Amino acid sequence: MCDNYWEDPQLAQDESIKIFLTTKELDLAEGVKFVKTPKAGAVISFCGTTRDVFEGKQVSDLGYESHHRLALKTLGKIVQECKTKFENSVKDEKIHRVYVGHRLGKVPIMEDSIIVCLSSTHRQEGWNAGIWLLDTIKERVEIWKTERYIDGGFSWKENDNANVTDRV
Amino acid sequence: MCDNYWEDPQLAQDESIKIFLTTKELDLAEGVKFVKTPKAGAVISFCGTTRDVFEGKQVSDLGYESHHRLALKTLGKIVQECKTKFENSVKDEKIHRVYVGHRLGKVPIMEDSIIVCLSSTHRQEGWNAGIWLLDTIKERVEIWKTERYIDGGFSWKENDNANVTDRV
Fold this sequence. Notes:
Two copies of one chain form a homodimer.
Chain A: E1 5-7, E2 17-22, H1 28-35, E3 42-49, E4 53-54, E5 57-66, H2 68-85, E6 95-103, E7 105-108, E8 112-120, H3 123-140, E9 143-149, E10 154-157
């Protein structure tokens, strides 16, 4: 299988935002390196990882599919919205840089399906932005997941590990 | 200058907790590798980084000092408390592993003074635990910081980048 990578060409010009979809393994070190700046006192990272069990069933892997063009567009909008939402110049609060990588295809146990990194002036706006960003990505981005079990079964899920409901 | 490293020998036996103080550079990849487990769907990391400006003054670096034995003991208590506080077996919520490294001595701009990593079953208890853990470490652990400015001045601070008050 050949590896694939998709990025929004317009956003690729913005040194404060990196957003991509890939079938390759994600790399947290790359994300943290991208978001670090001398103006930021906090770097917050989130990795969403395939677990071995879901509701008592042994999971073999997760599979992610997306509408690539729409997903990148929605991700771009969400990240821009996040930067505006958590900036407060009176309190000197700011999200400096954001990195979002989402893996597509099969994601084995212990490997990451999503990595989000961001840098902020202080930790408060960083935590708030991280929580909002991840919830909003899972709600709005055109990416879907299949959960495959070791007994051979599988089920389609909303892309949300917290409040999962069956799609079909 | 020789590098130094301090760890609680009792906690060093616990494979779910790693806590240490060091004068060397911190390594996020080590922390993330330590906390990953097949049972965790989320890995959350925080790096506290030296910023180049504080209240309009150009910072040259931060310096951290501690009462090593007490600081390790307090860190150990806080991490144990965190694991109990954010476990909820009814909701299947759990903090699986926690890694806390705090740097001592001089920490230049863009380098990390603290790294906290944790793994949780879902993202909610992970975010809550991360926020609580960091706030509590900054409130209770016997570590103090000096801020040195490029004009040659310096000031002692509480070890809290969010709500700083002068100590002397």
